[in-house]
Amino acid sequence: MAERNKIFFFYKREDTILEKIEELKFLASQEGFEVVENEKEANIIASVGGDGSFLQAVRKTGFREDCLYVGVSVFDLGFYCDFHIDDRAGMIEAMKNEQIEVRKYPALSVTIDGQGSFYCLNECSLRSSIIRTLEIDVFIDEFYFETFRGDGMIISTPTGSTAYNKSVNGAVVDPMLACYQISELASLNNNQYRTLGSSFILSDKRKMTLKIKHDNSHYPIIGMDNEAMSIKHCEKLSFELTEKRIKTVKLKDNSFWHKVKRSFL
Ligand code: NAP
Ligand code: MN
To answer: Using a 6 Å CB cutoff, which residues line ligand 1?
Structure first.
């Protein structure tokens, strides 16, 4: 991968890992990489931290498709981090290897009120901002499916399926499947209100629309991965799995299922 040689390091400035970052930068330049200070010039973006930092790195750099994202963890290896900060030799080796395989993660697109579109790598979450429940009409394509009443909903990608989605009993989904999953947060189910009650998975050929029923000041908190949206008033959210793919390195013996076993079993 000779043409990929401009690397940008994404990390929290206040971190106690600054010394290690300097060592990483030095090593990278010794190995023929150009360490750039402007992320726009980079074709490799290395996030240093955890999965949360990786999500931020992808978001803050605009979900670039012309970049290879590399997750470097400081503590335990997570889902987006394939390297540990102390395994520098392994990192350089993988980056220099011409035979390196690229893993592609699908991103979810969220369109709010038919206008702005946003991307999510883990999930989009909707939660009631007050103690009262949210009421949401759910449409699959143009078909009215159900009316949800409860705390909120989580719409997750396959790679996001091991995060928030898993905490509410959603299924863990192989990222080789182009799909997205909808999970409920405490739905009311009684003689008046009825939802499916279980998570469901939609194909990338389908679009899902949520219409939020409003009463005055009651609005949901909308989360895109680890960032809360500042939009307060929104009525309609449409979801689709995009063609957009986030590229990252694929190492031997480190498939998604290796990661699932390592993290949970
Ligand atoms: P956080 O609240 O600091 O961390 C949540 C935990 O989820 C961290 O251990 C994080 O790993 C891990 N994580 C992130 N993405 C993951 C993935 N795809 N698969 C498995 N674990 C994952 O927030 P954060 O670190 O900024 O991460 C944001 C994510 O937290 C959100 O996208 C959401 O999925 C999740 N979240 C979960 C809950 C819940 O389970 N009740 C509630 C809110 C948000 P690192 O320590 O390596 O960062
Ligand atoms: Mn975190």
So the answer is: 50-52, 55, 78-79, 122-123, 159-160, 162-164, 167, 225-226
CATH code at 6-98:
3.40.50.10330
Ligand 1 atom having least distance to the Cα of 156: 34
Task: Give domain 107-244's CATH architecture.
Answer: Sandwich (2.60)
Smallest-distance ligand from the CA of 51? 1
Dist. CA 127–CA 139, nearest whole Å: 18
- Nearest residue (CA) to ligand 1, atom 43: 164
Closest ligand 1 atom number to CA of residue 52: 25
CA 85, CA 21: separation in Å to the nearest integer?
Answer: 9
Q: How far apart are CA 162 and CA 144, in angstroms?
A: 28
- The ranges assigned to domains in the chain are 6-98, 107-244
Q: Tell me the CA–centroid distance for residue 155 and ligand 1, in Å.
A: 14
With cut-offs at 50, 70 and 90, classify the pLDDT of residue 2: very low
Residue to substitute in 12, 17, 48, 51 for testing ligand 1 pocket (most ligand atoms within 8 angstroms of CB): 51
Q: Is the pLDDT of residue 1 over 60?
A: no
Residue 126 neighbours by CB under 8 Å, 6+ apart? 134, 136, 152, 153, 154, 210, 212, 220, 221, 222, 223, 237
pLDDT at site 255: 92
- Give the integer Cα–Cα distance in Å for 137 and 25: 50
The arithmetic mean of pLDDT across residues 60-64, rounded, is: 97
pLDDT tens for residues 12-24?
Answer: 887 688 888 999 9
Query: Taking the mean position of all CA atoms in its chain, how far away is CA 31?
Result: 30
* Tokens coding 89: 């030799």
